[in-house]
């Protein structure tokens, strides 16, 4: 007990005890050329241990500073540092905004790196993904955010054909994907081949791979927090880009309304496949070529600084894929799916050390696959509509203590219908209110120690479930060169995505309900982050996690009519553990990352025969090695490459077979395969190298960028799976391969 | 303070060595083939006991002719159980070399709602192979479909009204089977003609068709309590006379058919993830099932 009292006293001492004469400095950190706020930029007080990072609005606050003269330095990856010396009067709050100039990468060798505290840059399990790196990486037809994220340690792809993210043993639905604070439910185009996010519209991406903080919730594994660009606050700018699969346009510029100043941004992308499809249809005369196919997405954002303390913004996204394939006479297949989001945001500087963000969000995912064969129609529309409101408060009263709290509530409706031959076989409409609230504190008892504790309470109305999700993180800093981190927490998930790895157009979301409790996961992560000479960094993380009460639609169900909701599901559990190494260099002519992951994931479904024992899911791979390098040659030329080597994926190797040919109501023979274990064998190792050349320059007053790239340059035909052809005897095992060598050329003009 | 590069490299080497050791452990030997007894067959409610098959599994990478894998020397019984699980009657089966099947030596009618146990002692296998099934309730056609139906005219397909089949603990589950009684190429429907002419489908493969398993709740209930089952137009590949079989299944057949289908049409499973079929056979594989059946006929006319 005395120890507890002592600890409590220590905490209380760290609580806001603002001395009478102390002052504060706060403000925004922005890009000097566009006025965009920079998220996660570091601001340090030279000669002191004080330092902080901008929040998701680009705002920082340094409170409880003694009166005097201070030199503050702001820094951000890819920008020149900026320092300013100011004098702080007693009891004063000084507004100090920084504008950072983008770094000329060709001179980056001589740029002095800021000596910011290392823990401000890298919380455990967090990775910031620079958009300009993504835009330079060789890509399959289009820059793709998620395909670039797949190159990070601990994050895997199911195949070359999928942009979905399998993070630290979790399936794609275990990652919360937020766009400007709004949940995006199925961020894919082209049936999973691409993610929906147009890199022209994105400002910042943060990947929380595990043990994420209490400020987020609702998913078992990880968070990807994406922020759209606000738009250029200084001048009107535009871009046009022509690519092999899609073309993009964008415009942005400043807005003024009286004294208020702001910006807007619109970026749109549309596939341009129609001419190619027309040629293929006419030359191949193949009905499998779609009669029509397109996808598009539009991102728009408008923001206005109402006062020096208040900012309002509205952001929207709409994306859609539509395809129609008449695959035989009197037979056609139609698929229409997409996402729409809308976010209204209001941020206010409440005081010298307090900041508030309010958001109202709406999100809709819809999928409407329909088919008609010989006069028989079938449909399976699925829709999620989600309206929410949230408020988040940051309070940074002094060097030792900060607090974050917030509430997020909303109403969600899941709709899932199954109509066969105009007869409705399933009509599930699950409305659910949800409410969550969190409190998180950060305590720095000494300059070397940081303790972060948080608790999130979550209520979900479908089934009336309330769960508590605690989170704790301990960090020990050793100078500015190394930090050791330990974090853990429990996480809950009330939704699950029923997904086909081959084709995302059939993806279906389901929720908890009566007899279907939320899934939960316990996670622990240990990390060591070091800064090395010559701009290198080396991070190591070791993680372990459980997955319990996983719920999924039973894969064998052929008809769901008349079943109770819980009868649709199988319930499972799993675990994952691994180690990740990341060597990264973010500056200089040669930069990039080398990543290695050693990992294992297992699952089982005790109430689902065939899945009773622990088995490795297909995406389980023991070893993953990734190298992503960019070299700036000078005169606007750069080379980039991405290489991957990974253990082959798990698959089931049938050992035996038999036939059942005497069921009088089943025509023909039923072939049956017998295996000793589920996914007990491995495909050959996967490896691939992508390479690209980029030239940037200026022509007729506009900046241009030409990219010539090749994916899978040595045309390694990696194996995806074996197709077992039972029409042959013995059964023929046909290998189904992944992407061959693919070229990509794009031209972008910015003006 | 920065970490010296050499110290870092040394630490990295120490860390990497165990991974290198582990790297050799990820690939296992190919799984061995293990021979198992295969039971197949289903008994029909209200009918005499039906013949059953016994076979052995074969290696997946070798030519498989079922006749070469038949078990011909087993001791086979089907036993009627009391509700308490004790044996009420035992019906021996004998191998019929001509039919390559085990046939009952006594004539006994399969009782709906009752549970039957299959038992086989197969030489070379230490444990007896056995399985149990509960027989669905019998049902009949309450109102046959119209004598003639114009193709695709009736929304939802030809109707067949049937009385209800009972099954303990759940709704009835059906398979609908159609059989063309005059399958000539001239009578192909447009969709089937496209399959034959453009996609090299053999017309013989279009004569019979079966639905996936379908729940009773799919169908509307008539005022008299009978069930209106509709056979979707998708099932008809020929114009002309057709026979419809409506088959109510026991649990063993439902699970067997559903899980056999996902071995080849994996729905939500990853490609290459092939679970074993769910079987009610212990110390073996396959299915020993039970079903009830009704049938009707109609003529499908050209539009």
* Average residue-wise pLDDT of chain B: 89
Q: What form of chain B results from the Cα inertia axes?
A: globular
Assembly type of the shown chains? heterodimer
Cα-based radius of gyration of chain A, to the nearest Å: 27 Å
Helix content of chain B: 10-25%
Q: N- to C-terminal separation of chain B? A: 86 Å
| Chains forming the largest contact | A-B, 103 and 109 residues
Main beta sheet strand tally, sense and closure of chain B: 8 strands, mixed
Helical amount of chain A: under 10%
- How many helices of chain A in DSSP terms? 5
Notes on the protein architecture:
The complex is a heterodimer of chains A (751) and B (303). Helices cover 5% and strands 57% of the residues of chain A. Chain A is mostly beta strands and 751 residues long. With 303 residues, chain B is an alpha+beta fold. Helices cover 14% and strands 35% of the residues of chain B. Chain B contains three helices and 19 strands. Chain B has helices at 5-23, 190-199, 251-264, and strands spanning 37-44, 53-56, 58-59, 75-81, 87-96, 101-104, 115-121, 129-134, 141-143, 148-150, 159-162, 173-180, 208-210, 214-215, 220-221, 227-230, 240-249, 281-282, 285-301. The termini of chain B are far apart. The chains are: A mainly beta (751), B alpha+beta (303).
